[in-house]
Amino acid sequence: MGAGGRTSVPPSNRTVEADYAKRVPHEKPPFSLSQVKKAIPPHCFQRSVIRSFSYVVYDLTIAFCLYYAATNYFHKLSSPLFYLAWLLYGAVQGCILTGVWVIAHECGHHAFSDYQWLDDTVGLVLHSGLLVPYFSWKYSHRRHHSNTGSLDRDEVFVPKKKSSIAWWSKYLNNPLGRVLTLTITLTLGWPLYLAFNVSGRPYDRFACHYDPYGPIYSNRERLQIYISDAGVLAVSYGLIRLVMAKGLAWVVAVYGVPLLVVNGFLVLITYLQHTHPALPHYDSSEWDWLRGALATVDRDYGILNKVFHNITDTHVAHHLFSTMPHYHAMEATNAIKPILGEYYRLCSE
After folding, report:
1. Which residues contact 167 (CB under 8 A, 6 or more apart)?
2. What is the pLDDT along the chain (349 residues), one digit of tens a residue?
3. How many CB atoms are closer than 10 A to CB 152?
4. 203 found inside a domain
5. 204 CA to centre of own chain
6. Which pathway is this protein engaged in (predicted)?
7. Is residue 108 part of a domain?
8. CA-based radius of gyration for the chain
9. Are 202 and 155 in contact (CB under 8 A)?
10. Which of these, 267, 124, 125, lies nearest to 194 by C-alpha position?
């Protein structure tokens, strides 16, 4: 107590807290996008069909092995271990399938190969298998990349101004309310966004990712929205047939719980990539593309970084160069950090 008893917050903690909340500069960056690109080794922009497919095969092989083990051996376990094994399966399989989701996301950015038709074919198959309307989300996500950080035009996870916060929000600002909000967001947030544009940017009429004539899409995109819907409907039909053949409990355990984990991670990852006390957002008078792209944060998920193909800890580079394949993104991130300086943010907490 030799310092007058001021030991409640050690200096080191204050330093950490100050650094955590230190704002990313919001002024126009002193570098250009071309200068950032020159810092990245040229091979980082090269896409390899063989290497990209190797990740698809790797993920799907692990997913199949997990499925095989669960459906052939779990029934031999005693009651407590039986349920524990299925819970563990759902969590691990959900993580693996999140990696599959990320690869399909790369296809939507034309980062899988040099062939757009191949990217769209692979992306459509993989995303449909996870009940994601591939082209529908591809186009809305592209607009997110075109308007990141804009309070007026970004597609999703735009922070609300105080004047627009709903009156009932104050009743959720307590431990129970926050738990309820997080639970609903992580379990239902993704399907609610796709179906009803919940948490999406406001449009002048009802917006839905399954509606080819909705305000999200242009006339030239509408045919592909039908194709996306057909993919989701085909997988849904297959699931219905599985329920009839195997039973609802079997389908929920084998497919439903892992899918719930995928949806939860998708919402969690994308929300945290664009939400941090240090990140600025801009109105139309201040926003430009480069400042918006830099208003993102890399986050460290430990071993899951590799499982998720580094979409978590290379997100800043991804927003700057979205056609770069994920297997070069970490090298590119390390290359651009010295150029970005204070404009780069990594959160490992």
Report:
1. none
2. 344 433 334 445 555 455 556 778 889 999 999 999 999 999 999 999 999 999 999 999 999 999 999 999 999 999 899 999 999 999 999 999 999 999 999 999 999 999 999 999 999 999 999 999 999 999 999 999 999 999 999 998 888 888 888 888 888 989 999 999 999 999 999 999 999 999 899 899 999 999 999 999 999 999 999 999 999 999 999 999 999 999 999 999 999 999 999 999 999 999 999 999 889 999 999 999 999 999 999 999 999 999 999 999 999 999 999 999 999 999 999 999 999 999 999 997 7
3. 14
4. yes
5. 26
6. Lipid metabolism
7. yes
8. 22
9. no
10. 267
Q: Is 102 in contact with 269 (CB distance < 8 Å)?
A: no
Are 283 and 149 in contact by the 8 Å Cβ rule? The answer is: no
How many C-beta atoms surround the C-beta of residue 201 within 10 A?
A: 20
**Whole-angstrom distance, CA of residue 166 vs CA of residue 168:** 5
The number of folded domains in the chain is: 1
Decide if 239 is inside a domain: yes
Q: Tokens for 29, please give them.
A: 């960056």
Q: Which residue has the tokens 């945290």?
A: 272
8 A C-beta contact, residue 97 and residue 258: yes
231 within domain boundaries: yes
Q: Report how far residue 71's alpha carbon sits from residue 214's, in angstroms, rounded to the nearest whole number.
A: 41
CA distance 332 to 111: 14
- For 40: left if phi > 0, alpha if psi spans -120 to 50, otherwise beta; the answer is beta
- DSSP states of 237-265: HHHHHHHHHH-HHHHIIIIIHHHHHHHHH
Phi, psi of 192 (to 5 degrees): -65, -35
Q: Identify which of 303, 291, 305 has the alpha carbon closest to the alpha carbon of residue 333.
A: 305
